[in-house]
Design a protein that fits this description.
By secondary structure, the protein is of the alpha+beta class. It has 16 helices and 18 strands. The strands form 4 sheets. Strands 15-12-14-13-17-18-16 form a 7-stranded antiparallel β-sheet, sandwiched between helices. It binds flavin-adenine dinucleotide.
Length: 460
């Protein structure tokens, strides 16, 4: 990045908030994928006003702006491709401003870590349900930008369902306040929904007002093992058709279980094809217990081999540690992974899992299958070695076939990780030309010079 721009940025932010040495740039060159590209400069603003001034400068100088939270994204959305990119990292805007217990809302800066916000509101008996597995290393801003989901979203909905208001810096540096503190609001277009899930391509979210609910007092958690993956996937539908809405219904296949066990030594059964991790919650202890008993009964009727009911918080935490450790544990099996995020109608889960296993067998590369099966959101992760060119070719073909399988049953490319760079070639196929055209018109009207996150979401 040229010296003049750096000096102008230092004038706005001070010298400690502008990073441009090769070592610093390298630490902002990647996200949760295997994709890397160095930015031109990184800035660490502390206020919306500073963000606005930086964006104004970038707009004047025609520099690309890449919004960044914690860089845990799984679609290469925050990887800064043009080498003159200005990465705006929100990690210093990490204050929870106000918890309003009467209205059950929280006002927060976008760089707050999701788990920290949850812990803060829970001290007041309130609950912020969205729980991406990256909860300890992703930001509220990143979660809103990707409309993140997580295990609890089966019962409680995704991040976007909790966004009441947003402060967004627009492509010309103006500050937009949209939505507010009220639950119902149809005053004009729902712009907060437009920015939610826009992956940093329409504006930069600096603050948010989020809806909270009362924290459920009781939970019961069960890990249910199946000899057959087919039976486990059929059981997902059987449980949900039984009239119970569990808080979570997660699936882990054998490779996932083996990798977790090797990495974490949690005592998981690995001589099985799959496990379901199912939790019920609520405010009446007997009802919650009754629901988990019914869930177990349905699982046993569908071929479950064994059931482990968590006795107390420590055992429950251990089961969730297992689930949250899948992604990092996979590194034991292969140096690289490509994690997909398809969502399919629940009834099609067994068929799609069968197809994915067929794809893995055909190309002779492992695909680990896990995910939020209760809402049809599966994460087939292809394990490979990027250094082997023939493996990369296979991976590309496998990804195309996985998307094909999802779209064929009325599914989508992404349930929660977003499009970013990695899914961009498949977007038109999934959405069709009219939808792409409308979306590009929205992008052009909000960001006519394409400064926000160029090269993401759409083929320019
Ligand atoms: C181990 C692991 C488990 C995961 N589990 C889940 C899961 O269960 N559910 C799930 O949904 N995701 C999951 N993810 C993916 C990822 O954590 C989420 O997408 C998360 O929302 C990204 O947050 P972040 O702060 O890291 O954002 P980043 O990765 O920094 O950015 C992600 C995207 O959002 C944009 N962005 C970031 N901040 C802002 C902002 N303030 N304003 C505008 N745009 C912004 C970026 O430009 C980029 O396009 C997981 C990732 C990992 C590594």
């Amino acid at each position: 990045m040229n010296k003049q721009i750096i000096n102008l940025l230092i004038r706005i932010l001070g010298p400690k908030a502008v990073l441009f040495t090769p070592e610093d740039l390298a630490t902002y060159s990647y996200d949760g994928t295997f994709v890397e590209s160095n930015p031109g400069v990184v800035v660490l603003p502390e206020t919306t006003q500073q963000v606005s001034q930086v964006v104004q400068l970038a707009a004047e100088k025609h520099l690309p702006v890449v919004p960044r939270g914690m860089g845990s994204g799984l679609a290469a959305g925050s990887v800064p491709f043009p080498d003159n990119s200005v990465v705006i990292s929100l990690t210093r805007m990490n204050h929870t401003r106000e918890i309003d217990t009467l209205n059950a809302i929280v006002k927060t800066e976008a760089g707050v870590i999701t788990a920290d916000l949850q812990a803060a509101v829970e001290k007041h008996g309130l609950f912020y349900p969205p729980d991406p597995s990256s909860i300890r290393h992703s930001t509220i801003g990143g979660n809103i930008a990707c409309n993140a989901g997580g295990p609890r979203c089966l019962k409680y909905g995704v991040t976007g369902d909790y966004v009441l208001g947003l402060t967004v810096v627009l492509a010309d540096g103006r500050v937009l306040n949209t939505g507010g503190e009220v639950i119902k609001d149809v005053t004009g277009y729902d712009l907060k929904r437009l920015f939610t899930g826009s992956e940093g391509t329409l504006g930069l979210i600096t603050e948010a007002t989020l809806r909270l609910i009362a924290k459920p007092q009781f939970t019961r958690t069960a890990l249910i093992d199946f000899v057959s993956l087919e039976n486990a996937s059929q059981t997902v539908n059987a449980v949900l058709s039984s009239g119970i809405v569990p808080a979570t219904l997660e699936l882990m296949d054998q490779t996932a279980l083996v990798c977790i066990e090797q990495a974490m030594k949690l005592g998981l059964e690995t001589n099985i094809e799959a496990s379901l991790l199912i939790e019920t919650d609520g405010n009446d202890e007997r009802t919650v217990a009754h629901e988990i008993e019914n869930v177990v009964r349905v699982c046993e009727a569908n071929g479950a081999r064994s059931v482990k009911l968590a006795q107390g918080a420590a055992e429950r935490d251990k089961l969730w540690l297992a689930r949250r450790s899948i992604s990092p544990s996979l590194a034991r099996k292969a140096p690289n992974k490509l994690g997909e995020d398809i969502t399919v109608p629940r009834s099609a889960i067994p068929e799609v899992i069968r197809k994915i296993r067929g794809i893995s067998a055909h190309y002779e590369l492992p695909i680990v299958i896990f995910g939020h099966a209760g809402d049809g959101n599966l994460h087939p992760n292809i394990l490979f070695d990027k250094r082997q060119p023939d493996q990369w070719e296979k991976v590309e073909a496998m990804v195309a076939e996985i998307f094909e399988a999802a779209l064929a049953v009325g599914g989508t490319l992404s349930g929660e990780h977003g499009i970013g760079t990695l899914k961009l070639p498949y977007l038109e196929k999934a959405l069709g030309p009219v939808s792409i055209d409308v979306q590009k018109q929205i992008k052009t009207s909000l960001d006519p010079n394409n400064i926000f996150n160029p090269g993401k979401m759409f083929i320019d």
